[in-house]
Specification:
alpha+beta
Length: 64
């Protein structure tokens, strides 16, 4: 059985994606860090997306 995880994707793309084992915990965290709550199907892909964004920001100096 696969554990269902939830990701809080912040509205500010400079902030990291946070992954929770409990949807309610993700909702409580969203009260302090506005963003979208999505099912975390692939945590490695979410982490890679964030690393790519940070790298692009460092290279170009712009936030997309």
């Amino acid at each position: 059985m696969t554990v269902q995880r939830w990701a809080l994707v912040p509205a500010d793309p400079a902030l990291p994606v946070r992954v929770f084992d409990d949807e309610e915990a993700a909702r409580r965290a969203a009260a302090w860090c506005p963003g979208r709550i999505v099912r975390a199907l692939d945590e490695d892909a979410l982490d890679a997306r964030h690393r790519e964004h940070v790298q692009a920001t460092l290279v170009t100096g712009t936030v997309r």
